[in-house]
Amino acid sequence: MIDSTRFNLMKSRHGAHGSWAVWAPPSGAPKSNIGNLDVLDEQANPALLETLNPGVVMVGLNLSRRFLNEPFRNFHDPSASANDFKVRYAFRDTEFWGAYMTDVIKEFVEPLSGTLLNYLRRNPEVVRDHVKSLRSELLDLGHPRPLILALGGDAHRLLVDNLCTNEYSLLVHLTHYSHRISKEKYRDTVRQQIVQAQFGTA
After folding, report:
1. Domain range annotation of the chain
2. Which end of the chain is less packed: N or C, by CB atoms within 10 Å?
3. Which residues neighbour 88 within 8 Å (Cβ) at sequence distance 6 or greater?
4. 3-class SS at 85?
5. Which whole number is the average pLDDT over 17-43?
6. What is the predicted pLDDT for the residue at 201?
7. What is residue 20's predicted lDDT score, i.e. its pLDDT?
8. Which of 166, 108, 152, 159 is nearest to 131 (CA)?
């Protein structure tokens, strides 16, 4: 858990791209309530701070859509084309529920990862600047060596190449939630990937 001061610090400094792995339960269809941000409001959800876990950080590559003036909206996209619901389904009732969530590349909206990666290859200083911002974000989060779950191979490669191993306890490559598999298969896949990384077994 974290205290209210740190929660509000993360919201004010990093809320435009950061969020938490806490979602309202679905009320019907698999994507229902995924955009409900009341669960990330201390007043509406008094148990929120006890749920949050700064010892686990889920990291994606970048924003696929821009959200204006909505802190913690990232990873809670109500768009019919979004797949955030798979992450909710995969981690509900696990120790990873309540993890902090963010992206490596901030303020760069690009749904096509190949376009972004080509840009980053041509501009390595941009990667350095964004990794510096990520380090600052993790410092504000307050955990010295979090478990990092990298959402997709591109995010994982950037983290492996730019973070030091003493900055995290474990860095795990997870299949990205946009992958065209069912939510059930996604849940089974990422849980296996975590177990394999933690214990060296499938």
Report:
1. 4-9+48-199
2. C
3. 21, 23, 26, 34
4. helix
5. 95
6. 58
7. 98
8. 159
